[in-house]
Amino acid sequence: MRPWLYSSQECYDTSQICRAALQLTNFTGQLAIRRFESFGDDFFLRSLSTSDVNDEYLAWFQDPVVQQYIASAYSMYSISILKEYIKLRERRPDCVFLGIFKAVANTLIGTIKFEPIDLGSNTAEIGILIGDVNYRGRGLGRDVIYYSTDWLKETLGITTYTLGVDSRNKQAYKSYSAVGFQVLEYSETGSARMLLKV
């Protein structure tokens, strides 16, 4: 079980991440941290679980565009591997792994992960994937980053976020810049390290 989903009795001697569990809201029978609207559709964010893994989720990692820009996509070649990956994230006290769901059908369309989270320096590394091609290029990634970082700031005090992006991925670069990310540096391979302060 994720540290921030423990019951209040189990939280008595745990970290600030665990105490954030008490601020989660209930939405359609699932623990959801945010519900929001983006371009006329309703979405919500909630903790990702192994029960969310299906053939559609697996297919995201077989998409040539995803494979081009996400190095780990090639290693996600079976449902069992994806489930194990999620289980490992659930065990990490420095990780928040969220699914992005369309509210109407409770349909998973993407993920956002904060790992590692450092409560000492109030920082977190972001990884985001809009898996459903129907929702790419519509500004959803920008909105997901905005609402999820807002929640992490409220609950954990995280104010600084970093991420890496392939500079050839113009769509992602544009989305991150629109949220307020600024380039820290470029690597020899052409990827950019970006920083956001909220």
Please report which band the strand proportion falls in: under 5%, 5-15%, 15-25%, 25-35%, 35-45% or over 45%. Answer: 25-35%
Could you tell me the number of beta strands?
A: 9
Treating each run of at least 4 consecutive H or I residues as one helix, how many helices?
A: 6
Indicate the low-confidence ranges by residue numbers: 1-30
- End-to-end separation: 29 Å
User: Could you give the order of strands across the largest sheet?
Assistant: 1-2-3-4-5-6-7-9-8
| Sheet with the most strands, sense and barrel status | 9 strands, mixed
Radius of gyration: 16 Å
Mean pLDDT across all residues, rounded?
A: 82
Helix percentage: 25-40%
Shape assignment: globular
Helix and strand element order: HEEEHHHEEEHEHEE
Structural class: alpha+beta
Explained architecture:
The protein has 198 residues and is α+β, with helices and mostly antiparallel strands. The protein is 28% helix and 33% strand. The protein is built from six helices and nine strands. A nine-stranded mixed sheet has the order 1-2-3-4-5-6-7-9-8, with helices on both faces. A hairpin with a 4-residue loop joins strand 5 and strand 6. Helix 5 crosses helix 6. The chain is globular and about 35 Å long.
